[in-house]
Structures are given as structure tokens and as C-alpha cells.
Amino acid sequence: NAALAHYSPSNMSSRKLSVDEVYLSDTGGQYLDGTTDITRTMHWGVPTPLQKETYTRVLMGNIDLSCLIFPPNTAGRTVESFARRALWEVGLNYGHGTGHGIGNFLSVHEWPVGFQTNNIPLTKGMFTSIEPGYYRDGEFGIRIEDIALVVEAQTEKPFLTFEVVSLVPYDRNLIDVSLLSQKQIQYLNAFYKTIRERVGPELQSQQLEEEYRWLQRNTEP
């Protein structure tokens, strides 16, 4: 069912999950201090080589766009292809947008921010999703979605970049590290360090020891 990018469950199409397939969870909530929209794809068994490669290439696209440095007032459509490049290299693609604005206790899809042709230029302070994916009809679907804040980059001239604020690990079981560049590995390690530092103490303060151990395992370098 995850092969449909926006699948909705029903009594006619629902079925039992197994450990031998890809599982896509698009989840979020609305809180007094903001709205979340996070998608993670998991496999609890032994993924196929194709599943690992396509997942890794989706992750590569997510990382490449997330750490991109670009001039102020750049239109989202101008940089959107960075999220697709790793898939394009092997003749693959996805049929939905790469991201959308996120409301502050407002709409989950908040126009006019995003990466479409009719979106306004990216400026400091905007929140947008970054969500490349890959879908194979009748077989499986993959999407990795984070929320990112547009911030100033550490450059001599005032350029912009993204700060990912979705602090959720990716599925190590689906990552083919051999496909990642050194820069992408460094990004992942820094991201996992941030998750440990920010989420770990919160879990411990709530005495969620099982969850804390899970977090430690899944944010190892």
C-alpha cells in the first residue's frame, strides 16, 4: 500500500503487516508551538538490494538538499533538483513535490512556501518540508520527510541554507553506506549527534529508558 504516495487505509484495502516488507509512516501533530510532518520508511526484516539502493538514494537526495547553500531569494524550484539527483543518476524519479510550507499551529501544507513553480522565493525564517521518495507500483514505497528551517549560512556573503528540525533517526537497516559520499556520512553523524544531545536528555528526564536505549542504538556513528 505504501507504493501509493498518498494511500488512505480502508476496510477493503487494509491488511496485516509483516517483517518482510517496507513500511512507510507519514505522521505528524499540531501543538500550541507548531505543527509537525515527518515521514520515515522502515524494514524490520531483510530488505532486497533494490529496496536498500532506492532508500539510500532517497536519503542522499534528502541530505543533498538539506545541506545546500544558496543565494537569498532563490526560488525553491531552482534547487529542487538536488533532492532528485541521486535517483536521476540511475534513471529513477518520484511523482510528487519535494516539499511544502509548514504552518505554525496552522495548516500542515502551508502555501506559498515550497519547491513548486508557483511558490515564493525562500527567505530566512521559513519552514518547509524536504521529502524526496521513490514508489514502485504494486511493490513498495519510500519517502523520507523532514521539516527544515531556512537559516543564514556561515559564508562571507549572506547566503542561506537549511537547518533540519525533525529529530528522528533514519532506518539503518535500509542504508547502503557504500553509496554515500564522505560529506553525506559526516552530515548523518552530525545529525545523529544533535538528536542524542537534544532528545536523549528529554527521554531520560521522563524515565523512558527503553526508548532512550533505542535512540542510542539508532544514532550510533
Poorly predicted sequence stretches spanning 5 or more consecutive residues: none
Task: Give the overall form.
Answer: globular
CATH architecture of the largest domain: Alpha-Beta Complex
For the record, give the distance between the C-alpha atoms at the N and C termini, rounded to a whole number.
32 Å
- Radius of gyration equals 17 Å
* SSE run: EEEEHHHEEEEEHH
Approximately what portion of the residues adopt beta-strand conformation? 15-25%
CATH class membership of the largest domain:
Alpha Beta
CATH fold call of the largest domain? Creatine Amidinohydrolase
- Give the class from helix and strand content and strand pairing: alpha+beta
How many DSSP-defined strands?
9
On the 0-100 scale, what is the average pLDDT? 95
> Would you identify the CATH H-level superfamily of the largest domain?
Creatinase/methionine aminopeptidase superfamily
How helical, in percent, are the residues?
25-40%
Tally of alpha and pi helices = 5
Describe the main β-sheet briefly: 3 strands, antiparallel
Name the strands of the widest sheet in spatial order.
5-8-9
Q: How many domains in all?
A: 2
Write up this protein.
It is built from five helices and nine strands; from the N terminus they run ββββαααβββββαα. A three-stranded antiparallel β-sheet has the order 5-8-9. It has a two-stranded antiparallel sheet with strand order 1-4. The protein has two domains: 158 residues, Creatinase/methionine aminopeptidase superfamily (Creatine Amidinohydrolase), CATH 3.90.230; 40 residues. The chain is α+β, with helices and mostly antiparallel strands. The model has no long low-confidence stretch (mean pLDDT 95). The chain is globular. Helix 4 runs antiparallel to helix 5. The two termini are 32 Å apart. Helix content is 27%, strand content 18%. Keywords: Aminopeptidase, Hydrolase, Protease. This is Xaa-Pro aminopeptidase 2. InterPro entries: Creatinase/aminopeptidase-like (IPR036005), Pept_M24 (IPR000994), Peptidase_M24_C (IPR032416), X-Pro_aminopeptidase_P (IPR050422).
